[in-house]
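Inverse folding, one chain.
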């Protein structure tokens, strides 16, 4: 493709705006959701194709807006998936750039059409191939168009709770240095801060609508009492049971995924946060060493919780 002689080549397409970065976060979220879908057993893993396609199509639309490529379209008709490469490259050509991966993304589009319109499931090997191709497409074109690395667009920045967001940033930094234990501690604190922030802003007369009795999770008042006919043991076990029920009811009342929460709680150490002191951590359910994948799951779970809480949020002024 020839470069227009009337327009000088440029090596920049302009920095991404705040709203564009928010959309890039959504692109990353759709891709990550597809990755999680791909890990499901067949036929559920075929749904990953829809998320991969949605992430690519959203990204293409964002590129077209960023470089004003839609003016190349002569009609107001909807832009077809494959047309994006035509109108985008017409404009990118003036900057000495080109949007690649047209063939592999065309295969992804056909897989999506076959699934959605012809009820043809995608085989696991093909799903994994589409996942790798989509990742390669994103990694090449994020810096080319927006000057940002795909891996640098973190879903963490969509978390509005400042304390939880900072904890998650620390969790991601720890993963980057292979410090899985530190990452899990930071994720554990992030979840605590996320729920505590959401609940605290809804308190009236010192109680929130998510108050289910005084916290029994770490109540040790009776552990050293005289053991009269096993009374000490009974009180301890009852306190633990009530604490577990309180936590479960709170998670369910906030409309969070309890099954994912149960896995999260089995991975991370439980935080004990006291005012004016460094947080402590208790290992309750540790069976085997945690992995990077476990740490990434925890970060993803907290981001998902944050987005769900942010869907409907309110604050009671005391």
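Residues assigned per position:
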């Amino acid at each position: 493709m020839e470069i227009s002689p009337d327009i000088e080549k440029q090596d920049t397409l302009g920095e991404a705006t705040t709203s564009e970065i928010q959309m890039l976060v959504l692109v990353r979220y759709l891709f990550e959701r597809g990755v999680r879908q791909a890990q499901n057993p067949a036929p559920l893993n075929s749904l990953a194709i829809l998320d991969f396609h949605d992430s690519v199509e959203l990204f293409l639309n964002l590129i077209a807006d960023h470089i004003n490529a839609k003016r190349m379209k002569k009609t107001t008709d909807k832009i077809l998936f494959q047309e994006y490469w035509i109108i985008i490259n017409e404009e990118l050509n003036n900057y000495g750039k080109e949007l690649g991966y047209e063939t592999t993304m065309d295969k992804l589009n056909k897989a999506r059409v076959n699934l959605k319109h012809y009820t043809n499931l995608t085989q696991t090997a093909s799903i994994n191939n589409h996942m790798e191709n989509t990742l390669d497409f994103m990694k090449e074109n994020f810096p080319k168009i927006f000057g940002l690395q795909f891996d640098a667009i973190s879903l963490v920045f969509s978390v509005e709770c400042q304390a939880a967001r900072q904890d998650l940033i620390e969790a991601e930094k720890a993963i980057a240095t292979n410090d899985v234990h530190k990452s899990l501690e930071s994720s554990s604190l992030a979840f605590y801060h996320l729920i505590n922030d959401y609940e605290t802003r809804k308190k009236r007369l010192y109680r929130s609508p998510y108050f289910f009795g005084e916290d029994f999770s770490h109540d040790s008042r009776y552990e050293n009492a005289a053991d009269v006919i096993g009374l000490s043991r009974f009180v301890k076990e009852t306190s633990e049971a009530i604490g577990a029920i309180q936590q479960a009811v709170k998670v369910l009342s906030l409309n969070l995924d309890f099954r994912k929460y149960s896995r999260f709680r089995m991975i991370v150490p439980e935080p004990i946060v006291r005012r004016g002191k460094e947080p402590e951590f208790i290992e309750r359910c540790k069976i085997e060493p945690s992995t990077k994948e476990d740490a990434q799951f925890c970060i993803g779970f907290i981001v998902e919780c944050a987005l769900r809480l942010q869907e409907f949020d309110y604050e009671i002024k005391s």
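The beta strands are 270-272, 280-282. The chain has two domains: 18-153, 157-210+254-311.
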